[in-house]
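Structural biology now treats backbone shape like a language. To illustrate, our science desk offers a sequence and the tokens encoding its fold:
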Amino acid sequence: MKTMPLPNAFAETLRETLDEWPSTQKEIAKATGILASHLSEMKSGRRRCTPEYDLRLSRFFGMEEGFWMRLQLHYEMQRVRIELGHRIDMEVQPAA
């Protein structure tokens, strides 16, 4: 059985936002202080969001601080749950 790749909400949302924004990616990179290559890697899912990137992107796009980090964390939690959840359930017994 072939598994479907897990969608990366952070990368997908960033890609959509960058693609729909009236400025070029190079202009956004300059305005945010994030290297254009890092923006490209983030929107393709090859680079994760960091707290610094979150603050820079949130300020530029007028979003609540933590928006981008929450998307990143949600993706990572889903990925780990899929990859290791069963093993962790077998290895770790609840304290209560």
